[in-house]
Design a protein that fits this description.
Blueprint: H1 6-47, E1 56-63, H2 72-85, E2 90-95, E3 110-113, H3 117-123, E4 126-131, E5 146-149, H4 169-181, E6 184-186, H5 190-200, E7 206-208, H6 216-219, H7 229-233, E8 240-244, H8 262-273, E9 277-281, E10 299-302, H9 309-315, E11 318-321, H10 326-331, E12 337-340, H11 344-350, E13 364-365, H12 368-376, H13 380-394, H14 402-415
Parallel strand pairs: 1-2, 1-4, 2-3, 4-5, 5-6, 6-7, 8-9, 8-11, 9-10, 11-12, 12-13
């Protein structure tokens, strides 16, 4: 009988060790999720003490990207309310760290620290609470309150929440808390209403099919708020801008992990469109953003920490992404958008899409060479025909008046007396 050699034994040992470690990680993840859920439920009970306080009928509380930013749909709506109804409303913003946003007090806003006693008191006494991402499940809102989810992505692309493959029961419980906490959802298209609101959230209540406030300027072809981007990032006035904004990938740590050839992309854009180009990239905040190895002959800019993606979109001439919903926003401007999808086959298998990615009508490149070829051979007429068809297939609802429609609805909720 032949005995296995040392190398084979080591490999077998490491394989069994990795399996055990994987099992331990899964058990630990499950433990922490159940622990967080139980803590959430205990906090809900404790916070009911604020139900004794009267609801401030003219008070509106805003929260954006888990209280980390002043941007997106909440920013558009709060500025509209402050400008049109400021003297009639008490506008509050929640931030994990209010200090960097202290200048907002000049707009008449009150700032509170997220998850502080002051925050919970404001949350449970405000007539309207508006958020765009992950409402805190621990807040036991009252029936008299209006809680609005504007979302932070248009269209209906990668599968989310309840539609995520292999979703755990504990995750379903947490999603249910968020759904039950919300009274109104905002939608950008009919497919988003069907797949995300009715499907991924399993919500059967009111939906405002107005489009997203942050896209009003794009629909109305008003790009003025992006005019100062060149000055902020030191981009020459004559340069056109490519923005690369991929979604987050587990396991990636640096911008270089995405394997994007900034120099080759710039050269391809020069060949097709002429002129000088700046390559701007905006990574997920988990990523160490420096894109190294680029020659000084090329103008490459890191815009990861710029707070409002919409300003960057308005300034850009080309967008490159993968499966991010920013393709929806950018396509409203009729400007070229390309998908750089190196892991598309794996992503289809593990995550999946509501709409087949090959039916989005955006050119898809799996490699840098393919992507550069798509840019060099870009056909504007064919492209525009494709994205307009995409908008129709999605059942586009972008009205160009979403900010006003939602803002006026909030004012009505705050001033109507039953």
């Amino acid at each position: 009988m032949l005995l296995p050699n040392i190398s084979t034994l080591i490999k077998a040992f490491l394989y069994q060790l990795s399996r055990k470690w994987s099992g331990y990680k899964q058990d630990a993840t499950l433990f922490y999720k159940y622990r967080n859920y139980n803590r959430t439920m205990k906090t809900r009970k404790k916070l009911k003490k604020y139900h004794k306080l009267p609801i401030a009928e003219n008070q509106v509380l805003f929260m954006c990207f888990e209280a980390g930013k002043y941007a997106c749909n909440p920013k558009c709506i709060s500025e509209y309310l402050a400008e049109k109804y400021g003297s009639d409303l008490n506008i509050i913003w929640a931030f994990t760290d209010p200090e960097p946003f202290s200048h907002l007090r000049e707009k008449g806003y009150k700032l509170v620290k997220y998850q502080s006693d002051e925050f919970y008191k404001a949350a449970l006494t405000s007539k309207v609470f508006l958020y765009n991402m992950r409402i805190p499940g621990e807040i036991p809102f009252r029936k008299e309150q209006v809680v609005i989810s504007t979302g932070h992505g248009g269209g209906a692309y990668k599968k989310l929440l309840l539609d995520t493959p292999n979703i755990l029961d504990i995750d379903k419980k947490m999603i249910a808390l968020s759904t039950n906490n919300t009274t109104i959802f905002v939608s950008s298209c009919k497919k988003y209403t069907k797949c995300v609101v009715r499907g991924a959230y399993a919500y059967d209540g009111e939906v405002l099919e107005t489009g997203m406030p942050r896209n009003d300027d794009l629909v109305n072809k008003d790009y003025s708020k992006g005019e100062n981007i060149r000055e902020i990032f030191g981009i020459p006035k004559e340069n056109k801008i490519i923005i690369y904004a991929p979604t987050y990938r587990k396991g990636t740590r640096t911008a270089n992990d995405y394997n994007i050839d900034a120099e080759g992309i710039i050269e391809a854009a020069k060949k097709r469109f002429g002129g000088q180009w700046t390559f701007m990239y905006r990574m997920h905040y988990f990523i160490k953003t420096e894109l190294s190895g680029v020659s000084n002959d090329y103008h490459v800019v890191d815009a990861t920490h710029y707070p409002d993606m919409q300003d960057l979109i308005k300034a850009a001439d080309i967008l490159i992404t993968d499966y991010s919903s920013c393709v929806w926003d950018f396509s409203l401007m009729d400007k070229p958008c390309f998908l750089y999808a190196t892991d598309i086959d794996t992503y289809l298998e593990k995550q999946g899409f509501y709409t087949d990615v090959y039916d989005w009508h955006f050119p898809i490149g799996k490699t840098n060479r393919e992507l550069m070829g798509l840019i060099e051979n870009f056909n504007e007429e064919e492209y525009l025909k494709g994205i307009h068809k995409h908008h129709e297939e999605m059942g586009i609802l972008e009205s160009g008046h979403a900010t006003r429609l939602i803002g006026d609805r909030i004012y009505k909720e705050c001033t109507s007396r039953d």
